[in-house]
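Pyridoxine/pyridoxamine 5'-phosphate oxidase
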Amino acid sequence: MADRTGIFAGDDPFEIARAWLAEATRTEPNDPSAMALATVDETGMPDARMVLLKEIEPDTGKGGGFVFYTNYESAKGRQIEATHKAAFVMHWKSLRRQIRARGLVERVEDEKADAYFSSRPLQSRLGAWASRQSQPLESRATLLAEVARVTAEQGLNPPRPPFWGGYRIIPLQVEFWADGAFRLHDRFQWRREAPGAPWEVMRLNP
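Predicted structure tokens:
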């Protein structure tokens, strides 16, 4: 498309997303990798929460993906396991830009999840063991007692819990949005029929 230049230029949406994230990392004061993740439960009721994007994988023929980590038994984990679909939006106020995407979801490989888990601070690893994410909690004291218990049980180099790991969102649609004068924003949507299929790119009305 002739007018898809500047920050929208390129033939790979994952490369564009990485470039935008890198720029946001230099300008956004807090959590530039934060994204609002949307899922639905078994009744079709939508749900949303903030998570941290940990990696934008290249498309090597299998579809590429946006990776985050969580407790598989959390509300979002249960919803993802039921539908294997999700959407997200990343918004950077400092850049006046956002990325929206939706697509299919799969678990990342165990080796990849193990490597990421081992890179986390010890307190975060112990917290992953202690928290029954999304389940009722009697008190904060109860949670801290559970942290103490798992610390004694797991030691100072805890392995990844079997109920914790990564998810890969393989997008079928990706939209890049940038603020424009007089609310005439620039929007480009990338769309494909299946992971690994060719992309179709179109400009959208603001």
